[in-house]
Amino acid sequence: MVSKKSRSEVRRKKHMKLRNRFSGTAERPRLAVFRSNTHMYAQIVDDTVGNTLVAASTLQKDVKAELEKTNNVEAAAYLGKVIAEKAKEKGITDVVFDRGGLIYQGKVKALADAAREAGLNF
């Protein structure tokens, strides 16, 4: 009988393959995205020193106050706008996009498109 791997394990393996191909530097940090069942998280990370430069999530009070739900496409788009604004305040314009092993559609795509519209280049 063929056993099927869990979705979380498949995502974890895809993420590790992606992470072996690229990493964030001081000039071009990595925009990492994580999506749970109820919330979304985005971080801009400099992997050379292991620092998180900017972070935003739908758990933050100021973000959550603007949203009706925290796990839909509109929430992801708003989070993309918020992370881009915070990054521009810190002087970050170019990033490498890390989808975290998730499929580039729906919420992940909405976050990426909103971040691009707000001024991030990737």
UniProtKB/TrEMBL annotation:
<dbReference type="GO" id="GO:0005737">
    <property type="term" value="C:cytoplasm"/>
</dbReference>
<protein>
    <recommendedName>
        <fullName>Large ribosomal subunit protein uL18</fullName>
    </recommendedName>
</protein>
<dbReference type="InterPro" id="IPR057268">
    <property type="entry name" value="Ribosomal_L18"/>
</dbReference>
<dbReference type="InterPro" id="IPR005484">
    <property type="entry name" value="Ribosomal_uL18_bac/plant/anim"/>
</dbReference>
<feature type="compositionally biased region" description="Basic residues">
    <location>
        <begin position="10"/>
        <end position="20"/>
    </location>
</feature>
<keyword id="KW-0694">RNA-binding</keyword>
<comment type="similarity">
    <text>Belongs to the universal ribosomal protein uL18 family.</text>
</comment>
<dbReference type="GO" id="GO:0006412">
    <property type="term" value="P:translation"/>
</dbReference>
<dbReference type="GO" id="GO:0003735">
    <property type="term" value="F:structural constituent of ribosome"/>
</dbReference>
<dbReference type="GO" id="GO:1990904">
    <property type="term" value="C:ribonucleoprotein complex"/>
</dbReference>
<dbReference type="GO" id="GO:0008097">
    <property type="term" value="F:5S rRNA binding"/>
</dbReference>
<keyword id="KW-0699">rRNA-binding</keyword>
<dbReference type="GO" id="GO:0005840">
    <property type="term" value="C:ribosome"/>
</dbReference>
<dbReference type="Pfam" id="PF00861">
    <property type="entry name" value="Ribosomal_L18p"/>
</dbReference>
<keyword id="KW-0689">Ribosomal protein</keyword>
<comment type="subunit">
    <text>Part of the 50S ribosomal subunit; part of the 5S rRNA/L5/L18/L25 subcomplex. Contacts the 5S and 23S rRNAs.</text>
</comment>
<feature type="region of interest" description="Disordered">
    <location>
        <begin position="1"/>
        <end position="22"/>
    </location>
</feature>
<dbReference type="InterPro" id="IPR004389">
    <property type="entry name" value="Ribosomal_uL18_bac-type"/>
</dbReference>
<keyword id="KW-0687">Ribonucleoprotein</keyword>
<comment type="function">
    <text>This is one of the proteins that bind and probably mediate the attachment of the 5S RNA into the large ribosomal subunit, where it forms part of the central protuberance.</text>
</comment>
